[in-house]
Amino acid sequence: MFIPHTQEDRQEMLDKIGVSSVKELLSQIPQDLLYPALDLPRALSEQELTAHMQALAARNKPLKNFIGAGIYEHFIPAAVNALSSRGEFLTAYTPYQAEASQGTLQTIYEFQSCMCALTDMDVATASHYDGATALAEAALACLRLTNRTEILISAALHPHYKEVLQTYVRHQPGVCVKEAPLGADGTLDLEALSQRLSDKTACFVLATPNFFGCLEQAEEVSSRVHQAGALLTAVVNPIALGVMQTPGSYNADFAVAEGQPLGNAMNFGGPGLGIMTAKKAYMRQLPGRIVGIAKDKNGRRAFVLTLQAREQHIRRERASSNICSNEALCALNAVIYLTLLGPAGLAEVAELNLERAHQLAERVGKLPGFRVKYAAPFFNEFVLECPVPAKKIIQKLEKKGLSAGYALGKDFKGMENCLLVCATETKTTEDLQAYAEALGGIK
Amino acid sequence: MYNEENCRFAKTHEWAHMEGDIATVGISNHAQEEISDIVFVDLPKVGQQVTAGQNCCVIESVKSASEIYAPVSGEVVEVNSALTNDPALVNREPHGNGWLFKIKMTAPTEYENLLDLNAYKATLNK
Amino acid sequence: MKTILPHNALSLEKSRPGRRGVRFEQAEKHASAYLPEAYLRKSVPKLPELSEFETVRHFTRLSELNYCLDGEFYPLGSCTMKYNPKAYDVLSALPGFANVHPLAPESAVQGTLEALYGLQELLKKVTGLAAFTLQPAAGAHGELTGILTARAYHDARKDFKRTEVIVPDTAHGTNPATAHMAGYTVVNIKSAPDGRVDKEALQQALSDKTAVVMLTVPNTVGLFETDIREIADRVHKAGALFYLDGANFNALAGLVKPADMGADLMHLNVHKSFAAPHGGGGPGAGPVGAAAHVAPFLPKPMVELKNGKYTLSGKMPKSLGKMKAFFGNIAVCLRGYCYLRQFDGQTFRQIAENAVLNANYVRAALKDKFNAFFDCICMHECVLSINPAEMNGVHTSDIAKRLLDYGFYAPTIYFPLIVPEAMMVEPTETESKQMMDAFVDAMEQIYTEIQTEPQTVKDAPHSQCVCRIDEVSAAREPNLRW
């Protein structure tokens, strides 16, 4: 079924090539290496495979999800998948032949435009693997731009982002990553931040909302960072930007985000959608694909991959990155989602997130033994301090069909009783009530 | 402005034109033809120290990125800021308004060791 | 052939203030009830404002401007544009898989973990390697993962003098770019005249400073490295690791095992070697396999099976760390799992053989007019070029554009860099003889046009929604957003 050739086709082809068997075509391969035993399981028919995959999918328990922590459950309008699953988008390649790829190219240009509008930044790339790798690549660009060697990060940056950043920059000569600590309210200690900024600091990585859900005083942070001659890279939540101050408004140099919340399913964390935007001055330091407007020879508007001399296929070891793909299909989902919502729809979703999370915080914060840990403003998730280890809460709520949140003890010492809880617009008032009731009996 | 006859050349296709201890640097007509439509020139920074034979500037076309080597050593004292808005100047006037940068030389003998026009042209015919 | 469509406006140009595609319920309070003034957005973002129907029209229309594998033959060398069964798209998107949070309790995600574990095991069987990480999001990301794994291996042995990565000049640009990103110095070695590794040059480049030798097999000109084992031995003798770029693994699966060839590390492309659509540029997935002595250094976590339960919580103290947030491009990996469950060893062999048969058929059919640069039997792709004397001022880029007029996507052009005016053709295993015959006909007609009416070729394409695009002005004055 996968191979179309009939016996006659095969023979005619062999005749044309001038060999008597396919094996003759493999004479370049040392014969003692050829045809190893593979010991694979029996091949399944499509019907059997379907049953097998359905059974596996059914082994995942459908829990009501209150976890955020970098991947967020949002409502996805039906038109998003209906459009992005069209074979014309799904089975096209990277748009090398621009004239035959105007559809993909224009959607990427529209995606870049939407990302700039959302963040109030000047330029955007066609997307990266995920938010964490987008941050790592932005940090590498900051090192190149400043010729400095330190990357200062918020202690409340997502732990996976911290690890990925380390992996990416660790082997750059002389480069190190340092943390700026938090104050008691769950946001950056600004005095400590100022002390840690120096003439070695290439950039400060600000996460707002931070990993604990808290919103930072971005303008104040920005001015302190720039006073030290460092660049500011903001890690943001694209849905929150429907109502929240933008990286452009507080003069960020780079803004990155995980774009999954924009019309992409959670998919156990991947594929993600790395969003990267920057000030225009850094345009030529951006890694990865970028689409621009061009004209065809009759003067008609067209779209092309541009600024390619930055890239690995031309610069090889001197390229700004080795990346040679983007998450085009996820970016397509995002741009369709934003086109359906428009600015008003996005603001509505953002306000619903604010409302549901605050309603939940109010309910559970009042329960005996529980309290909302931080006083800082938050968007759609917050840290709940519990009377028992967070792991226990998760186990108990799982039995009631709820996924309670993310236990912070694994990544943050001394936070064993802390649970990171998220409520998006997908959680109804009844869901919030069920959650609070389930917690209610726990002491 | 910087006529070919009055310039010295590196084998790597840069030219230098000396006035006092200042060398103006550009790329040869042959080099701009090879690179073809130039879309961006990544110039060195004023104040940067450069060493003869070392990469200090990149010229981009749509399909290529060419490294430009300093023909002489010294400090970059001026860069051609007109190229920021009009990189094609290098294509149109490689020996005129398409110059790249000026170096205050630390070892003027390096200039003497560069090729004259005829010797440079001879390398192209090889 | 596609009909010419009129100029397609941007969604932002079609926008009308107040139009909406989707509504949500109204929150009881505005954002200002929850957030201090200073944290609020000051201006409305300039996003498109369209109805749902307009949105559907807009994107449907844009989709029609694309060539795609479902519609057209894509002979793109080294990109492996083969058919991906539709079942995998459906099955990987089952709600039970798609709506799972990566940090949900492990007891609630056993189905996903079982599939991922199954994929790791199947990849081990197909390659003979000891372990696989599913974390890398693409081939280039897999390369970086592999080289950083090698680095962690050498560092753990306190072998810090190894600072170089050897790459042949035929390598894909990602190889040197990857080595550089991992903090290594790149040493390029020339190829032998037959397009294979120059063993002399390799031997001279190898030293106690060599950390890794990266090799693509079949290589980027479509040839198998016949002396692969000797090459691997020399690499190992120098104390370096042998990295196999598995970009072309579809032509090897079932024919040879990378472990038998001496590979210490390799990445695979789930989207190319196995089965996932390219999506206009991604997402892909680039699992990396390692031999036993290197496996402990792979990224963490990996799926393990302990006491009948699948878990991600295993300790990997020597691991290089994380390459991306969470665990990998799961939706793509699930497609790879489907593919590997649908075929047995015998079928993989046939699939690989077919990739080789098809490439050689195209090569043989075109060799009189488009001389194969390396005049010998190839593996899964062939490099073609026209005798410069017969080109009549036409360039390979013109032939590529003219092919669009005949209803074919273009081959990979100007790669490999060592072949002037190269066209690299990879029909893949799933194309029929009839489709390849049609492609050969088109190429022959273009050859005739080059001799009789070269201007037609130079002015191509004539059939697309836009004519030849001026990339120079786009790069000189970049307009990257509306």
Task: Write structural notes for this entry.
The complex is a heterotrimer of chains A (443), B (126) and C (482). Chain A is an alpha/beta fold and 443 residues long. Chain A contains 13 helices and 15 strands. Chain A has a seven-stranded mixed beta sheet with strand order 2-8-7-6-5-3-4, with helices on both faces. In chain A, α3 (78-84) runs antiparallel to α11 and α6 (131-146) crosses α7. The relative contact order of chain A is 0.14. Chain B has one domain (4-124): RNA polymerase II/Efflux pump adaptor protein, barrel-sandwich hybrid domain (OB fold (Dihydrolipoamide Acetyltransferase, E2P), Beta Barrel), CATH 2.40.50.100. Helices cover 21% and strands 35% of the residues of chain B. A six-stranded antiparallel beta sheet of chain B has the order 1-2-3-9-8-5. A three-stranded antiparallel beta sheet of chain B has the order 4-6-7, with no helix packed on it. In chain B, β2 (14-19) and β3 (22-27) form a beta hairpin. The model of chain B has no long low-confidence stretch (mean pLDDT 93). In chain C, the strands form three sheets. Chain C has a seven-stranded mixed beta sheet, sandwiched between helices. In chain C, strands 10-11-13-12 form a four-stranded antiparallel beta sheet, with helices on one face. Mean pLDDT of chain C is 94; it is low at 1-6. Chains in contact: A-B, A-C, B-C. The A-B interface holds A 284, 308-309, 314-315, 318 and B 39-40, 42, 60-65.
Core attributes:
heterotrimer, B: 126 residues, alpha+beta, OB fold (Dihydrolipoamide Acetyltransferase, E2P), 6-stranded antiparallel beta sheet, 3-stranded antiparallel beta sheet, 21% helix, C: 482 residues, alpha/beta, Aspartate Aminotransferase, domain 2, Aspartate Aminotransferase, domain 1, 2 domains, 7-stranded mixed beta sheet, 4-stranded antiparallel beta sheet, 16 helices, 14 strands, 35% helix, 11% strand, globular, disordered N terminus
How many individual helices of chain C?
16
Largest interface: A-C, 199 and 196 residues
Our Rg estimate of chain A from Cα atoms comes to: 25 Å
Order of helices and strands of chain A: HHEHHHEHEHEHEHEEEEEHHEEHEEEH
| Biggest pleated sheet of chain C | 7 strands, mixed
**Average of pLDDT of chain A:** 96
Largest sheet of chain A: 7 strands, mixed
Distance between termini of chain A?
60 Å
Quote the beta fraction of chain A.
5-15%
The end-to-end span of chain C amounts to 31 Å
Oligomer: heterotrimer
Coarse shape of chain C: globular
For CATH, the homologous superfamily of the largest domain in chain A is named as Type I PLP-dependent aspartate aminotransferase-like (Major domain)
Q: What is the helix/strand order of chain C?
A: HHHHHEHEHEHEHEEHEEEHHEEHEEHHEH
Low-confidence stretches of chain C: 1-6
User: What's the CATH class label of the largest domain in chain C?
Assistant: Alpha Beta
Strand content of chain C: 5-15%
The low-pLDDT segments of chain A are: none
- The CATH topology name of the largest domain in chain A reads Aspartate Aminotransferase, domain 2
Number of domains of chain C: 2
Strand order of the largest sheet of chain A: 2-8-7-6-5-3-4
